[in-house]
Amino acid sequence: MESISGWQVRLLGGIASWVVFSSMLNVTGKIRSLTQPWVSHQVISGTPISLKIQKYQHGFLDGLFTALSCVVSVPFYTAFLPLLFWSGHCKLARQMTLLMAFCDYIGNCIKDVVAAPRPSSPPVRRVTATEDEKENAMEYGLPSSHTLNTVCLSGYLLHYVLSYAEISDICTQLVGLATICLVVGLIGLGRIYLGMHSLIDVIGGLIIGMGVLAIWLSIHEYIDAFVVSEQNVSTFWTVLSLLLLFAYPTPEFATPSFEYHTAFNGVALGIVIGIQQTYHHFHHEDVPRLFTSDLAILAFLGRALVGIPTILLVKFCSKALAKWILPIVANILGIPVKSTSYIPTLSVSAMSKKSDGTRQAGYLQKLFFFSHQETFDVDTGIRLLQYTGLAWSVVDLVPYVFFRLGL
Length: 407
Prior knowledge:
Blueprint: H1 6-24, H2 27-45, H3 47-54, H4 59-71, H5 74-86, H6 90-114, H7 131-136, H8 145-164, H9 170-193, H10 199-227, H11 233-247, H12 257-283, H13 297-333, E1 337-338, H14 348-352, H15 363-367, E2 376-377, H16 378-405
Parallel strand pairs: 1-2
């Protein structure tokens, strides 16, 4: 049996303790009462700045900033990262996946703790040309996730390229830094132009993003060394993922932010489990890389044509399996559950028709007293397992298929 390191016990114990005491002391509510009024005032006072920027309204700018927003959105990274894994740049792919999960968790936690509004529309014109943007508009404002994610991921990409290519030329480094600044600036400007964020949201995203990037650059090598080792990785990360779900703050009103976190939490878990199992087979430093004689473009396109349908099939199967298994397990353990959207028979309206006044709470339910929930949304578990299966297939099942097909 694998041994559990002391730091793992301390970290997991610390998070579990935080969940209990923060709930008992209502830490989220107290922080919100201190920050929300000030941030809300800044959003309102920033309305004239948004209106001045929107005076330059033009169809071309609408399309440009919408396209830029899509390119740095979570759905884009979810589609792009598998291709990065299959291109042979495995270390970059797993680091950016875990960094994305880290950014997503930090950003969405702050959103739901502060619960600050987005710019009022009207008078601000809000452009939501895609379904993803319409869902984003349902979240709270501070910080701008697009700005935060762009700072972190583009900054780390620059760091990786300079380190991997061993570029020491100052001019090249400055050009790279200037390019990153330009992209971040356009993203931030675009979020204000589209009416999705106020100036304070963008500044908050910029500052928090730089802080997260600085932290990540100081620990990423340790995290990567841990993930590719065989030191209780899968068990530790599974427990960590579950604890992070409970550690997530309760928003003032329900938003899609927790759903986004749950999905990417599952992605990170699936990547870690898959990498830990297959690192020496498919993800070591000597694997064929794109644009080399070992992996031609046509072979890479073949990987994409085979891999994308495969992971979508695994996602569908994982969801169907989770929808069948989780309610049964919850019933056996005595945990009352509901379903917001995935299982109609467990919807709130359906559950209200059932009499459960004499039902005794199960032992596990009693252990979760600090959550202040009468029932647990099984959709969270379904979503977590669905995206865990999806990510696992990206780094485990699909590379094995490539191997068998000679790709």
